[in-house]
Structure formats: structure tokens, C-alpha cells
Predict the 3D structure of the following.
Amino acid sequence: MLMEDYKEVVKDLKLRGWDSKPFDRMLSIRDEARGDLLPFLKLCLTEVPKGGTFVDAAFSYISEEEFKELISYAISESKNHGWTDVISSVIDYASLQFPRLLTDHLPGLLESRSNTYYEKWAWRKADDELVDQLCDIICSNDRRKNDAWECLVNIRNESAILKAHELFEKGCPRPQIGFDTYSMESGFLVRDGKSRRLTQDNTYHIIFDDEYLTELDQGVADSVNYAALSKRNHPTWTLKGGDYKAYKFGGVSESACGCCGDGLHHLLEIPDNLLANSGPISLSTCLSCLGWEEDQLFYKHDSAGNPTPLKVNDDKCDPEFKAVPLRRAEVKIVRTPERWKLQDWGLSNSRENLNRILGSPTWIQGAEYPSCPTCNETMAFCAQLDSGLLLEDEDDEEWLWGSGGICYILWCSSCNVSGMFWQCT
Ligand SMILES: [Zn+2]
Ligand SMILES: [Zn+2]
């Protein structure tokens, strides 16, 4: 294809809007001449200021080298066009997929450009030198000190988070919401001058087999988001590697729910040694009660990893919606490549696989780390499951957490206690 063809796509989009099917046409560039996606995206950066899901999705198909070039181009074009939606989106997706590529550009990305919850994520991998620069700005009472503090608290390393704690009063734009709210978004807890990580760098994706993916695809046939029509359109659904062992997913568990007394639903098996000093862990919950009868449910795991509810009510409830188990399946647990370790629920926009173990959670309503009911310590992040999973009963629709949220699973390694809850919009 030629530049003329791309100009035609853009011209058509301006004339006919989404009827011009920009998504199909972007995907056909990907399939026919992947190397041409970069020139196509560059054209979109200047010609389609509002951007669109076809642009967002295309970022996943360009190489690291191409992304590097696109970032430089976006930053130089921001001087001519301002921070349009499409130019901002290059920085936003880069801050997830290749945060290190942004390091050289960071001082110029200090001030607010879009007022989105993720605009300071560009700073996640900033180095010590940049940490010092931010601290100087905060201490010198520069007019950018609030921006600088928000960048600082978003840098995900121990020294930056301790500095942010130290300079909280000086730099935080909204101190009334408390330091923990900010630091937990970055996966840290600061107590008595020490920081503790609530997330791990090691990240794994739950990979379903071909048959399962085909059925998931049937469930999204009416989606307005073209790239979500086939799960295979995003690399996170088909990651390869790891060991060849298959792990049990879905089905039922042997213990009973402490609220309703029915059998627990098995969610997934966590491999041996993935959580500190533990054998395999079988994660289960009651899909009928979680989030409806109780906001959070906790389970104690025995030496074989099997759960029993921590709280058992004498008066059993009668859940309004009785859920069937998640479809029994065998899944692979695959180590996540660097590029997909940081994901976001909003920016993923139903395209990406958000069924993950360890790594950083993709919060919908903001970071939430409950205390372990046994020892009272803040629990660490263990895994998350997205909506849209298949159910055991063939006729049933896909499983939704609330209105289509995510279930988060936390772990206390001192007590072998798991905790779960979900968030949705
Ligand atoms: Zn129950
Ligand atoms: Zn505990």
C-alpha cells in the first residue's frame, strides 16, 4: 500500500465517520504491510486529532523501534497542534507498553496535558536523576510543584515513594485523600519510614486454549469495538512460553460457602512457589454471594492449598442470583513479556486479556488492598479475573462481575489467607 491509500482512509473517515470502517482498514494494513502502520499512525497524529479505537489498537502492533520514533514525532507535533487526544494517546499507551522509551522526554511531560487519571504514568520508570529534579521543583515552591509531586508518587521504586511520602505536605495537590490512596495506586505501602511492595514485578497471564477463545469470540459478536471481536487480535490472549503444565480453571470446590452454605466455586489453581514459600493454591469463592451478600470474602488455605471460609454464618442467606460455576478448563500460566506487564482496564477497552496472576492489578475504581482478617496486615495482590469468562452451563451468557467488572484476589503469606472482591463501573 502507498501513502496515497492511507490519505484516502483518513479522508474517508473525515467524510463518512465510522461508516468508513477505519478499523477494518487499519487491520488490513497490519496484515498486508505491518511496517506501514507507522507512517499510517503518523498521518493520523496530524489529521485525526480525536484519534479513535482503531488508532489505540494499532499501537499494539508496532515494534519497540517504531514506537520510539512515534513518541518523538508525537512530542514534536504537540508543539504545532497542542496535546490533542490522539497525540496524548501515544504517550499514554507508551507509558504502559514501553515506559522506558519516555525517560528522555520526561521533563517536558511534567505539566498536565489531558487531566486523565493516567497522565502521570509516563513517569513510572523515571530514574534517580529525575527523582532529584522533581524533589527540587517541589521544595523550591515552583508553580509546577503539585504536578511534580504527582509524577514522583507514580515512579514505581522504593526511593521515589519514600521521597513522595517525605514531601507529601509540600507537594500533594489533594492531601485530604491521604498518602495511602496515592501510594497504593503505585503498589506501595509506607509505614514507619519503610516502604512495602504490595505487588510483584513477576507477572503471568492466564492463557486459554483455542476452543475456549473461539467461544469467547462468539460472545462478543455484537461488540462495537472491532479489535475485541476476535481475542486473537490482541497478543495478550495468545502468549506463548512457560512450562507445559496445564492448570485447573473453573468448576467447583469441595468446601461450602460461609454465607449461603452451597458449594464454593473454584476459580483457578496458582502454581507451586509462585506466592512466597507456598505450594499450589486453589482459589475459590462463592459467585452467588461475593459482592452481593458480602463485599469481601476471605478463605484460609490448608497445607494442600485448599480453602475454607474464614467466616461461617449460622443463619444461611438465600442469594438472589444463584450462579453456576465458571466453565471447567485447563489453562496455561505464561510469564508475561515486559511489554504487557502494565495494562489498564480503561485503555485496554475490552481488547486485552486482563486475566492475570501477580504483577500490577488493573483497578477499575482505584487501588484497594484489604487487611487480612487474621493478622490485620495489608494483603498483597495475587491475581485478577476479568468479566466475559464462560460458564459451566452451555446456555448461559458469559460471566460478569457486577455490570462487567474485575474480580481481585489478594493474599496474606503469613496466614495463607486469600481475600476477594470485585469492582465495576
Ligand atoms: Zn454463597
Ligand atoms: Zn494474615
User: Anything to note?
Assistant: The chain has a mean pLDDT of 94.
